[in-house]
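hey team, just a heads up i'm posting the complex here instead of the shared drive bc the drive is being weird again. everything in one block, sequence lines first with there labels, then the predicted structure for the whole assembly after. its two chains so it's a bit long, scroll down
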Amino acid sequence: MTATLSKVDRGRVQETRPRPPRRYRLSNLDTKVSPYLFVAPFFVLFGAIGLFPLLYTAYVSLFDWEVGADEPLFIGLENYRTLFEDDQFWNALFNTFSIFLLSSAPQIVVAVVIAALLNANLRARTGWRMGVLLPYVASLVALTIIFGNLFGPQYGLVNDVLGLVGIDPIDWQASTFGSHVAIASMVNWRWTGYNALIILAAMQAIPRDVYEAALVDGASALRRFFSITLPMLKPTLIFVVVTSTIGGLQIFTEPKLFEPSGGSGGGTEHQYQTVVLYLYQSAFQGLDLGYASAIAWVLFMVVIAVAALNFFLTRRAVR
Amino acid sequence: MTKRPSFAIYGILAAFVLGSAFPFYWSFLVASRDNSVLTGDFTLIPGGNFFSNAARVFDTVPFWKALGNSFLVSGTVTFSVVLLSTLAGFAFAKLRFRGRGVLFLFVVATLAVPTQLGIIPLYMAMAEFGWAGELEAVIVPNLVTAFGVFWMRQYLLDAIPDELVEAARMDGCSLWRAFWHVALPAARPAAAMLGVFTFMQSWNDFLWPLVVLNADNPTLQVALEKLQSGYYVDYSLVLAGTTLATVPVLIVFLVLGRQIVAGVMQGAVKG
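-- predicted structure starts here --
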């Protein structure tokens, strides 16, 4: 309706004060072309710095391509063949998934609990919300260094505290499971509050009258939580799981810096070497760009598969 | 529903917040002592050596240069992302043009694409351009994000009435002026949030800066890594560095925390 109205308006304006034709042509051109000029900077830049490097990675992965080599040698899928027989790669993949599982599962449970608590009628609401979000703003590098100290095998605070309750010191760096727990605890510390706020936002979007009806029917608080809140949160929980999967698969900073003076990171026996860390080491320490590209491309495929799975699971409509 | 919650709820939340804050305090605690005390008895009272440890940080790595670099890089990246996202978001939300649906679908589809995995060709390109070690190398690859465009488009869809753009056009505004005088003012709240998030993300970025920058011209994160990677770890020195690097972020959080909380919660609903 507005469109027809404005057409009439335009007619009236032109009756009283006719515009020069040239200007009209210009404005017509403006309507046709300007939208493309508005979106062009994004697409051009994103193509050049986002998509092109990613696609070119697939190309590089087909070569024996050393840093500084004059002529990269085309070797077809040889890098992939080596990769799939490479124990270190499978080990890195295992570590990545192990750390991811140790961090995502407890994190979501705690985040739901914290969200439920924050959803109570609290005094100083914003203050509490800021409090739980505090870790999110910390720099990952600083955080990893601090946690590396806390989990130190000799004088670390965590072992001191465990000692108070009679548990022998754990070598958080040398053992596979120990290092995974320590690294997962950094991830949990950083992201639990953030995810709690996302879940809280979803909780507040649940209509009040559903609860009131349940209350009239005499449902207990616990019953209301499990029969109403949790089912209604499902889409948000899937969203949280998927975003943390995509992030978790690319974990790098924590395993790189966990052990101070740990050389290239990942542990002496690669006990907490992750896929992206292996990629980094192959490319910038092993100087084997072709092989590292194959790692990148395989991981890319895994991430895309997870994202696609998400799409089919949720199919959130885009307006 | 108006009942005030019990003390138990406050107690659990307080414990959670204390746990959240503790590593920051621990970092300061270690930084305020000297290494000999570190192995001694546990205490939560800071010592008096923070400033001497901080001075040693300044001697070991180019801290102030790194701080300046981080501000320069994050500031430039944030300005570019916010401006270009608002521009494209406005076009997607309020202008009609052929191919709009397909192009926007492309933006949505690329939201989950891990562009970080393209670092190897990027590294080759930077070497080719002679940008290795220069700040251009960490600025240029981050000038746009698909998330920014998506976020601004979702916000502007409701924030600007269609009539307003029409009216501006009737008054003879070019689309550029309509963007400048109608869209930009309306976009301000969402643009501010996008700005804060982009700045934090850029500030904390580590993998790519570690690849292309060196110890002489680092960002703050790279400088911290150099501080830690010595063959002998002097924790009161290293944690003085992390404490110093955390202070600017904490100031930003104290000033803008309310908006950051709102941004996270809105992103949950809109995203």
